[in-house]
Amino acid sequence: MLLLHDDWRGTPMDTQIVFVYCLCDDLLKALQHGEDRQCRVSDAEILTVALVAALYFGGHFQRANEFLHEQGYLSAAPARRESLQPAHPSLRPVRAALVSQVGRAGSSA
Predict the structure, then answer these.
(1) Half-sphere exposure of 67 (CA within 13 A, CB side)
(2) Which residue, 37, 39, 49, 102, is most buried by CB atoms nearer than 10 A?
């Protein structure tokens, strides 16, 4: 069961989601990553969905995507899983490394 919007703001989960987004956004800026202007969701948001899926949803991207949209974290409506894949090929290794690191951190907790 998902927590209601007002019940979990300011909790460790909320803080971690915001931290993950900021980390992804800052990392992409540091790498001088260019966004595709046609995309409705930023690459930082896509990476955030991937990491939140790994942290809280057992790797289920669609569930994480729906949750983040319902709670107001994403700028656009939920997309199908295929569209959650970063369009820019240079982003794939960044996503894989971040998901791998989060998985390791989550298993040691």
Answers:
(1) 22
(2) 49
Q: What is the pLDDT of residues 1-23, one digit of tens each?
A: 344 455 566 788 888 999 999 98
Domain count along the chain: 1
Amino acid identity of residue 44, one-letter, is A
Which ranges in the chain belong to alpha helices (H)? 5-8, 12-30, 43-56, 61-70, 91-108
Q: How many CB atoms lie within 10 A of CB 65?
A: 28
Residue 34 lies in a domain: yes
- Reported as a single tens digit per residue, the pLDDT across 53-98 is 988 999 888 899 889 988 888 877 655 544 555 455 666 677 676 6
This prediction has a pTM of 0.69
Specify if 31 maps to a domain: yes
Query: Rounded distance, CA 11 to CA 8, Å?
Result: 5
If you ran DSSP here, which 8-state letter would residue 81 be given?
A: G
* Closest to 2 (Cα-Cα) out of 75, 68, 80, 54: 68
